[in-house]
């Protein structure tokens, strides 16, 4: 039995996200994703004005005159959310924890997808696969996904992004639009990320808290790794300690961003001390601009 307060919270997120989808994101999702999936249909003879990039050179060479490939637009897409439920998500130094913002991001994007009659699925993971909800259509299904992200109690505490991507490849037969939503406090997922990005339209959604990048001057502070339980006592009044902490974590963030860019994986960079809607809008505008060229 799901507690009443959880159902109330899901309804609040649904109402708030629906308003944003209708008022802010209306048209953005469809302009970026709708019709991106194309399936080969047949070939026909080249006609004046056809795009030469569509020429099928194998058929052209075989028949002696130019032929172009024809594609049929896929009318629906499959969107899958890979959501990191590791213990590090239970942290936030501003208004919300990272996992609360992750839920709202998923709600926004899932409602945008279902508004355009696309299927939506969910993979919850930590250092193990916690739950898989196969893609389906409909508002009721999306409300279930929001409830799962918000309410599900994971068994694991760590983060295994490679495992989640491997599972995505295993359970999906066709290309999907896949949002990998995590704080990316993990290592060793580069190889699997490269394979998954070749098979799917993979978008990384990174959620970061400012205290993960910069320490305040607060004297002696005991830091605990939420995923391993290890603790460390540090003196934050020491300027060199604060600078080293900032340098190390900023470098990790820059290296991750460089890795994703090198692999051609788009990134939505969200911070807990800012709006999560604006980075999504920025992503949509960037994608739409890219399609024009």
Identify the strand order in the major beta sheet.
5-4-3-6-7-10
- The CATH architecture of the largest domain can be given as 3-Layer(aba) Sandwich
Number of strands: 10
The computed structural class is alpha/beta
Low-confidence stretches: none
Helix content: 40-55%
Distance between the termini: 51 Å
CATH-assigned fold name of the largest domain: Rossmann fold
Model description:
- The protein is an alpha/beta fold and 293 residues long.
- Helix 4 links the parallel strand 3 and strand 4.
- The protein folds into two domains: 242 residues, 3-Layer(aba) Sandwich (Rossmann fold); 36 residues, no CATH class.
- It has a six-stranded mixed sheet with strand order 5-4-3-6-7-10, sandwiched between helices. Strands 1-2 form a two-stranded antiparallel ribbon.
- The mean pLDDT is 88.
- Helix 1 packs across helix 5, helix 4 packs antiparallel against helix 5 and helix 6 runs parallel beside helix 7.
Task: Based on the model shown, name its key terms.
alpha/beta, Rossmann fold, two-stranded antiparallel ribbon, 293 residues, 9 helices, 2 domains, 6-stranded mixed sheet, single chain, 42% helix
Provide a concise account of the structure shown.
It contains 9 helices and 10 strands. It has helices spanning 4-23, 28-33, 57-63, 98-115, 139-151, 161-171, 190-199, 239-262, 277-291; strands spanning 38-45, 67-73, 78-84, 119-125, 129-136, 177-182, 201-208, 220-224, 231-235, 266-271.
């Amino acid at each position: 039995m799901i507690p009443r307060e959880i159902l109330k919270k899901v309804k609040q997120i649904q109402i708030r996200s629906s308003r944003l989808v209708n008022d802010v994101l209306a048209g953005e999702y469809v302009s970026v994703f709708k019709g991106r999936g194309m399936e080969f249909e047949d070939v026909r003879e080249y006609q004046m004005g056809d795009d030469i990039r569509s020429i099928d050179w194998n058929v052209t060479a075989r028949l002696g005159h130019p032929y172009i490939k024809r594609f049929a637009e896929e009318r629906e897409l499959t969107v899958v959310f890979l959501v990191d439920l590791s213990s590090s998500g239970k942290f936030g130094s501003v208004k919300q924890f990272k996992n609360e913002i992750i839920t709202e991001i998923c709600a926004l994007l899932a409602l945008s997808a279902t508004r355009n009659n696309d299927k939506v699925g969910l993979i919850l993971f930590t250092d193990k696969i916690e739950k898989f909800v196969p893609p389906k259509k409909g508002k009721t299904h999306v409300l279930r996904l929001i409830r799962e992200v918000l309410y599900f109690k994971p068994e694991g505490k760590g983060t295994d992004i490679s495992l989640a991507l491997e599972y995505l490849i295993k359970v999906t037969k066709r290309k999907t639009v896949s949002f990998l939503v995590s704080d990316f406090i993990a290592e060793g997922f580069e190889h699997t990320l490269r394979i998954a990005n070749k098979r799917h339209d993979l978008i990384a959604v990174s959620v970061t808290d400012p205290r993960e990048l910069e320490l305040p001057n607060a004297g002696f502070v005991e830091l605990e790794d939420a995923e391993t339980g290890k603790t460390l006592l540090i003196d934050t009044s020491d300027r060199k300690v604060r600078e080293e902490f900032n340098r190390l974590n900023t470098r990790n963030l820059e290296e991750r961003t460089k890795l994703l860019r090198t692999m051609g994986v788009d990134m939505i960079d969200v911070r807990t001390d800012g709006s999560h809607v604006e980075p999504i809008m920025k992503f949509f505008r960037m994608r739409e601009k890219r399609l024009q060229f």
